[in-house]
Write a structure and sequence with these properties.
Length: 102
Amino acid sequence: MTNDIQLDGTEISVIKALGIGGSEIDGLTLRERCSELENAELVDTVKGLIMQGYVDADNDSFYDADSMDKLHFRVNSGYAKDLKEALDPRPQPKKSKRVRRE
């Protein structure tokens, strides 16, 4: 099965900041780890990842960085393996051109 997850640069930054190990971090720590992102861009990216199901949160109704600080986030364990592969894609082994003839 091929990996169909396509992440952009900000999504990759947020997933790496959250960590794929399954532990929760609070929104303030997430903001500190993603300090290169603007607050509005971080909020939009996290909301997008929640809508796609890749990230879980205590409450998905937050609208700014201040309300995001109070929440806890983690990577959805169901997507952890696929996200790990999307972050570090490994080349697929080449298929053999040999054909079995009968």
